Amino acid sequence: MENENLGADDVPDLLTVSFSATDRIGHQYGPYSKEQHDQILRLDRIVADLLDYLDSRIGLDNMIVLMTADHGSAPIPEYIAQFGVDAGRIDTSEVPEGEDSVVIPQTVDAALDRALGRADWIEAFVKPNLYLNYSEIDARRLSRRKVEEIGAQALKQLHGIAEVLTRTQLLTGDFLENEITLRMSNQFFPKRSGDLVIVNQPYYLTSAYKHSINKGSDHETCYDYDTHIPFILLGKAFKAGAYHFPVTLNDMAPTLANVLGLAYPSGNQGRVLHECLN
Ligand SMILES: [Zn+2]
Q1: How far apart, in whole angstroms, are the C-alpha atoms of residue 150 and residue 115?
Q2: pTM
Q3: Cα 74 to ligand 1 centroid, rounded to whole Å
Q4: Is the Cα torsion angle 77, 78, 83, 88 positive or negative in sign?
């Protein structure tokens, strides 16, 4: 801040800071752990120090502070199950380094072997996307839609899976619209998304406990525990108070643009939170 001379003239400067330990500790130990509790208390002090410094250097009246997060997190299934919640993992045994699941691609491969003959049907599984092997499908002159449907039916039988949509369904809008499928369709990107897109049941995680990266918990669904985030606006432009209506992270950019007198971002899908403006 000092070397870049931030806040020294009338042209607004943008400083972004990510406190990424929150994510890492959440993955390792889960949101209800002593470790996360300790980290959040320390983070609170770090943020206080930063705000004190900004106040003394620039003055809080001359700044807008926005605080948020990109996602929440599921409780550790083994922990939440103790309280009678239906929770678990789709893969219960260890998954090799670099893989997201063994049971999910195996289930689809086995179902396609039975229905269409033996082959390597799966290209990859990167949760929540399963990619089919197009060269096998094309070599046998099969319709991709049919192959997708057989795979989806097999996955829906797996304990812990709530919904599976196929690429064809997502491209054509051929599905019953509800909270889950609407969000699946929002995150579908034809150039990169899979041929089958999977949503777990609430409180179910894909990976086994020992998975090296996401050892304990993860954030992989559209449920409230994964999508509920802090959303704090601080500055002269905002009316003080707590607001009890649903917002999305998408609302932050147009709200900030409005306050700064700027055009909205080109891909804007949010709204200006005018309820909070002075
Ligand atoms: Zn994460």
Answers
A1: 8
A2: 0.87
A3: 11
A4: positive
